[in-house]
Amino acid sequence: MRQQHTISRSVSCSGVGLHTGQPISLTLNPAPPDTGILFVCHQEGRTVSFGASIRNLMSTDLCTALSANGTLVKTVEHLLAALVGLEVDNVYVELDGGEIPAMDGSASAFVRLIRSAGITPQERPQPYLKILRPIEISEGGRRVAIAPAATTKITCSVEYNHPMIQQQTYEYDWSVASFEQDIADARTFAFLKEVEALWARGLAKGGSLDNTVVLSEDGIVNESGLRFENEFVRHKVLDLIGDMALLGVPVIGHLTADRSGHALHSKLVQAILSQPDSWVLLNAQEEAVAPQSIYARPAHKPAVALQAASAA
Ligand code: ZN
Description:
By secondary structure, the chain is of the alpha+beta class. 23% of the residues lie in helices and 33% in strands. The protein has 2 domains: 3-125, 2-Layer Sandwich (Ribosomal Protein S5, domain 2), CATH 3.30.230; 128-311, lpxc deacetylase, domain 1 (2-Layer Sandwich), CATH 3.30.1700.
């Protein structure tokens, strides 16, 4: 168990949104204990704040998008992965556009940004959700599951009928060092024929070889090559880490993902929250609150804290 963390000072970066193609500035600001990850969006002359929570999930089509009070933020998963991967629990994410900048298509730019800010421990212990009973979601040969374990682990498999991928499996034991070394640099990928179809529909406007590994019929288009021979499955681990952040607290358990994606990941988060007899919240210091569903809780509270209190 550990203390909660925030960043030591405000830091900014800017880039283009993968799907919107818009230039966007992003600033990370320190936040008090129990804030969680809170988006503060300045759009069209107004400011809207909402938490990185499954209750604000808008879409899992091509990326994970959150929305509240008429404000949409696309492609949150790589930033969320960097924050939870480095165990930054409390932060305000200020944005002047509707998407997180793509940067290089991985989490590495966000990791560098967080490292340049520094990470500060806070006075409160971090709650953890410990899985007690297995939960599984499967659909059409795709599967994601979580089972009890002493520590947090991910076993992730991908399968594509492409000579550069075929079948890849990756075992990830949760640690900040391993996240930085093994996962954060893995970039998003797409097939050339899909990219061309997206562009024809006016989608993926900001997509380029600078932020996506593009697969041709029998190889990759990017001249710089791959960062890891199994970069594809490593990126799926990155996506799963980012999507699991929508739980609101870190989880202790063994995650297994076979050919999964954002939609299935979000269904697992929803399934976990809807089965409070399958887990216990460790380190919770919430005062007792009236029973209420997670959908009624304030936006900035960790999703499970109130539900655990109401279930107790
Ligand atoms: Zn991704």
